[in-house]
Amino acid sequence: MPYLQASDISKRFNGTAALAGADLAVEQGESLALLGPSGCGKTTLLRVLAGLEVPDRGTVTVAGSVLADETTFVAPERRRIGMVFQDWALFPHMTVARNVAFGLDKAEINRGRVSETLELVGLQHLADRYPDELSGGQAQRAALARALAPRPRVLLFDEPFSNLDTGLRTRVRGDVAALMREVGMTSVFVTHDQEESFVVGDRVAVMRDGRIVQVGRPAEMYQYPASPWVATFLGEANVLAGEAVDGQAATLVGEVGLVDPVKGACRVVVRPEHLTVIEGDRAVVSAVEFYGHDTSYQVTLAGTTLTVRAIAGPNFAPGDRVSLAYTGPPVVAFSGGAH
Ligand code: ADP
């Protein structure tokens, strides 16, 4: 049985279904990223796990004991589930050590839990600083220490990095994810950012309209999306009409190998990095974006505009006549012609 399990959770707010039968399972010591577009129910599900929201239906268990079902509701403060919010708010008038001690009982403080936790996050030398004397990254580590100090069974993070600017965000999210793995903390990170979900999640659960639609390891999700919607949500994808025979689909960009034995009319998921712009005159480059580490082209071929990623470049300019070649591995395709 998974360490943290939410089964068939539904929750309505004034007639709006925020959750419509959501199932989530997290193994002990695992970091799960909960990814989905804004409004799909991520925060509501997190609040149900924490006990801040009472579900209309469904069951929540941790370590085999029921926290919520039709007859049981364990109050949030008795769940031993910690929650870290966007602002990672520290109490400004308290030192780092006092922030971490907040919420601990005397016995734990006397046992040295504060310095133990500060050591865990590498902040023991800053114990006597006030929050306004910390860098952004240090403040987040202090807030993390405060969340870890009472030995929660599970830590929940609600969009924890969204208030940070890009550079700090990339560093801090890697840092926090590594620390969660190091201490073996069972955690759930809510995010709407695909890249972030891949960095922090051992597995990623993709949510849409109040339900979890696919769960898996990042590379497996990217390679084997369960639907065209998941494919386009997890990074960029060209979903091309195809006609499949014998593990190959005929598409606009030529034959594409398939991983599944799909037959007949289908939609083929072609990632931009699986296409190569070549010399030719079947297509025209409609836009070029150079990112430094790679280049993105929009190429229009027989009325369809496709996105192509190339490591080198830019080797073509808008208006250039070119052709496209499929240069990727076998991919997933979905039966049926319509989008
Ligand atoms: P996400 O975190 O994925 O952006 P939320 O869980 O915040 O999504 O919200 C899911 C849906 O439930 C949205 O339509 C939102 O407007 C609605 N909702 C969430 N909380 C409340 C509330 N307290 N009252 C009314 N509607 C709410």
CA-to-CA gap between the ends?
38 Å
Helical proportion, percent range: 10-25%
Low-confidence stretches: none
Radius of gyration: 24 Å
Helix-strand sequence:
EEEHEEEHHHHEHEHEEHHEEEEEEEEE
Beta-strand residue fraction: 35-45%
Count of separate DSSP helical elements: 9
Structural class: alpha+beta
Q: What's the β-strand tally?
A: 19
Q: So what's the overall shape?
A: globular
Ligand inventory reads:
adenosine-5'-diphosphate
Give a short account of the largest sheet.
Answer: 6 strands, mixed
Provide the residue-averaged pLDDT: 94
Strand order of the largest sheet: 6-7-8-3-9-10
Polypeptide structure, described:
This protein has 339 residues and is α+β, with helices and mostly antiparallel strands. Helices cover 23% and strands 37% of the residues. The chain contains 9 helices and 19 strands. It has helices at residues 42-50, 96-101, 106-110, 113-120, 136-148, 166-183, 194-200, 218-223, 228-233; strands at 4-13, 16-26, 31-35, 57-62, 65-68, 81-84, 154-158, 186-191, 203-208, 211-216, 238-245, 248-251, 254-257, 264-270, 275-290, 295-301, 304-310, 321-326, 333-335. Strands 6-7-8-3-9-10 form a 6-stranded mixed β-sheet, with helices on both faces. Strands 13-12-11-14-19 form a 5-stranded antiparallel β-sheet. Strands 2-1-4-5 form a 4-stranded antiparallel β-sheet, with helices on one face. The protein binds adenosine-5'-diphosphate. Adenosine-5'-diphosphate is lined by residues 13-14, 16, 18, 36, 38-44.
